[in-house]
Amino acid sequence: MGEAKIFLIFLIMVFLKGTVSEVYTVGDELRWNTGANFGSWSQKYNFSAGDTLVFTYGKGQHNVYEVTEATYRSCNASTGVLATYDSGNDQIQLDQTKKYWFICNVDGHCLGGMRFFIDVKEASSTNIGPTPPQREPIPPPPPAANSCTTTYVFDRWSLWVSLVAFGFLLQLSE
Ligand SMILES: [Cu+2]
């Protein structure tokens, strides 16, 4: 019973690991700032639908524009802006499977490197290996009554030996 419970908890953990969305801080410890390499940051992770990006930065120093690919490439946000954020702590849920293109639209920041794109895939459990085959539970040890039976048999046997020996002795004495 104890083993079954542990195995069930293990299964639940595997299931949750495969489905619970991740939260990614853009730029990791460097955050959303000039000087971070967002191209390499964005390639470190496999993003899937339901994950969340968090942009943290000094409010007013930067902003976050979700843009089209063309605007990402040109760094010209006069067109092709899909969404804008400027709170300094922007949490963007990636609820679609598509490419997301982000830039900072403060002068010069996009051209200076504050831009990246990510390819958000379908949330799936393909990154989870097959669960190892569950071993058959070890059968419980045989009941302790067996030892009583053994003792009982032994006692009967020794009684029988004693009787034979006694009879033998009686025969000798005749
Ligand atoms: Cu900026």
TrEMBL record:
Residues of the Phytocyanin domain: 22-122
GO cellular component assignments: plasma membrane
Protein name: Phytocyanin domain-containing protein
A single MF term (Gene Ontology): electron transfer activity
PROSITE patterns (UniProt xref): PHYTOCYANIN
Pfam family, one: Cu_bind_like
Record's signal peptide: 1-21
Entries under InterPro entries matching the protein: Cupredoxin (IPR008972), Phytocyanin-like (IPR039391), Phytocyanin_dom (IPR003245)
Organism placement in taxonomy: Eukaryota, Viridiplantae, Streptophyta, Embryophyta, Tracheophyta
Highest taxon of the lineage: Eukaryota
Keyword field: Signal
